[in-house]
Design a protein that fits this description.
The structure is a single chain. This protein is mainly alpha-helical. Helix 1 runs antiparallel to helix 2, helix 2 runs antiparallel to helix 3 and helix 3 runs antiparallel to helix 4.
């Protein structure tokens, strides 16, 4: 199972590449990802589950959710 170990700077740099995310969306996703990393639940399924929550709360769009998933787990088959 894929697991990532990224620093805050690496996470930030990945998110900056996603130009479709507004700054507030980027901040919400950054907070989510750093949380997952901190509790060592940094796996594709956990990321998708938590991003779907942000999507359901209208924080991010479905398109942005897919972009984030692909940015952090590009080889995972969603």
């Amino acid at each position: 199972m894929a697991h990532l170990s990224l620093s805050h700077d690496q996470i930030h740099n990945q998110l900056v590449k996603l130009s479709s995310l507004s700054q507030s969306d980027r901040d919400a996703v950054f907070k989510l990802i750093t949380h997952l990393s901190g509790i060592e639940d940094w796996y594709p399924q956990a990321l998708r589950r938590e991003l779907q929550i942000l999507q359901a709360e209208n924080v991010i769009s479905e398109t942005d959710r897919h972009a984030v998933e692909h940015a952090f787990f590009p080889e995972h088959t969603w």
